[in-house]
Sequence to fold (320 residues):
Amino acid sequence: DWSPDSIVDAQVARVREQVGEHGEVVLGLSGGVDSSVAAVILHKAIGDRLHCIFVDNGLLRKGERQVVETLFGEHFQMDLTVVDAGAKFLAELAGVTDPERKRKIIGHEFVEVFREEAKRFKQANFLGQGTLYPDVIESIAAHGGSTDVIKSHHNVGGLPDDLEMELIEPLRELFKDEVRAIGRQLGLASVVVDRQPFPGPGLAVRIVGEITPENVRLLQEADAIVTSEIEAVGADEGLWQYFAVLLPVKSVGVMGDARTYESCCALRVVQSEDAMTADWAYLPQELLQRISNRIINEVRGINRVVLDISSKPPATIEWE
Ligand code: XMP
Fold:
C-alpha cells in the first residue's frame, strides 16, 4: 500500500524507532519542499523533540521568511529558531562577483551559522535532513559506490560531519512526487508543496555582479511582481521556473520629464522536465506587458526589463 497515508505512518514509525524515547533532532529548514516535508514527518513522530533552524541569509525571496514563521512556527507549532544572519552574509559577500566564490562563501557561512545555533541543542543527538532517494543514489555514484557518505552538495549546504550527530533522513526512500503527495496529505500549504525550485545560494546567483543591500531589495521587489502576475493568471502551470534576474547594467530611461539612469532586470521563464535541459517559455503579450509595466512603475531603481530567450544548453537556467 503506497498511499501517502501509509507512507507517512511507515516513516513516522521508523523515525520513532531510530530516535528512541528521548532522542532529539535538529533540522535545517530551508522553506523548500524537501526539508519542509521532513520537518512535518519528524514533528509528527517526536513533537517538541524536533528543533528547526531557519537561517535568514538576507538572500531570500520577498515574504519567504514570513511564510516559514507562520507555517511552521504558528500553524504547526514547531520549535522554530529563525536566525537573522542577513547582515553577516552580505558583509562576507561584499565586493564578490565570481559566481562560484559566491556559492562557496554562502555554503561556508551557512555551516558556521548553523553550527553556532545547533550548539544550543547540545542534548540533540540527531541531525535531520530532507535527502531524497535520487540524492542517495547520486551520492553513492559520486563516491564510487560507497553507501557510507553524506551528500556534500545537498541544499542544506554540506553540513559538517564533526557535529557528531547521527543523520536521520525520513525521505531517503522517496521520490519528489511522493514527497509532494505526502506534503499535501500532511496539510502543508501549496505555497510550499508546489513551489518552484529555488537555488540554495538564493538571490545571490540572480544578482549578476556585486551583491548590495540595495540590489537585493530591487530584485526581491521585481521578482515578487513576476511571480504574483504569472500565478494570478495560472500561467505557472507547466513552467519549471519563473523569476527575475538583476543585471549589472544601467541604461537611460525617461520618467515624466526627467531622464533616469537605472538598473535593468531580465525575465527568466523556462519549461523543463529535470533541469538538465530547458526551453524558454512563451508568455502571452499582455502578461509580459503587465509584468514589465509594474516593475518599471513600482520598483524605483529599475527602468528596463528584458526577456531571456536562451535555451539550456548552451545557456543555463540561472545566470550564475
Ligand atoms: P542551472 O542554472 O545549472 O540550474 O541550469 C539547474 C537547476 O538547479 C538550480 N540551481 C541550484 N540549486 N544550489 C541549488 O540548490 C545551487 O547553487 C544551484 N544553482 C542552480 C536552478 O535553480 C535550476 O533549477
Remarks:
- The chain has ten helices and nine strands.
